[in-house]
Request: fold
Amino acid sequence: DGGITQSPKYLFRKEGQNVTLSCEQNLNHDAMYWYRQDPGQGLRLIYYSQIVNDFQKGDIAEGYSVSREKKESFPLTVTSAQKNPTAFYLCASSIGGLSNQPQHFGDGTRLSIL
Amino acid sequence: SQQGEEDPQALSIQEGENATMNCSYKTSINNLQWYRQNSGRGLVHLILIRSNEREKHSGRLRVTLDTSKKSSSLLITASRAADTASYFCATDYSGYSTLTFGKGTMLLVSP
Reply:
C-alpha cells in the first residue's frame, strides 16, 4: 500500500542536542511538507519542498533544517536552536506543488524534551 | 494571521444526530479543504471545494462554501461514534502556494 511513513513515533531530546525526524513516501508525490502541531492548535508549516533538491521556509522555520536529496525522503532536523521543540510533528505530501491538491499525512512523531 | 477559524471549538452529540462545523477565513481563496484527525494520528483529507462551487457532497458529508461571507460549513449526517475526531479546514489563499490550517473543531459522538 502506498503511504507516508514517519519515524520514530516518539522521540526524546536532551538539551543542546540535534534530532532528526524521518519522513518517507512511496506515493511518487513531488511535494512534501513538515508541520508542527501544538495541543489544541492547528498545523503550522515549518518547511516544504516542491521538487528534489529544493525547499522553502514556512511560517516557523527558525531552529529547523531539512534536506530533499531524494523524491521519497524529506527528513527534518530539530536543532538546539529550537528552544521549544516539544510538539507533534506531521509530514505530508501531495501530487504537485500546488495548494489545490489534497495532502496525504503520516501518523506523526511526538517530540519531547528530557 | 491568515489562519481560518473553526466554530465551535468543541461539539458533543449523540449517535444519529447531525453535526455542523463552520470555518471562516479572511481573504479570497482558490479552494478550501476539510480534513479529519483522529487522536494521535495524522490528518485525513475529506473533501475539497473550489471557490466557484457552492456545495459538494461525499457520502454522509456535505460541504458548503459562501465566498461572499468568507465561510464554509461541514455537515456530517447521521453521526457515528467512529466520527469522533478533530476536523480542520484548510484554505488555499490566492497568491500563496501552501495551505493554511485552522485550529479545528473537536467532535465527540456518544453511543
Q: What stands out?
A: Residues 35 and 45 of chain B are 5 Å apart (CA to CA). The interface with chain A takes residues 3, 30-31, 33, 40-45, 48, 50, 88, 92, 96-99, 101-104 of chain B (CB under 8 Å).
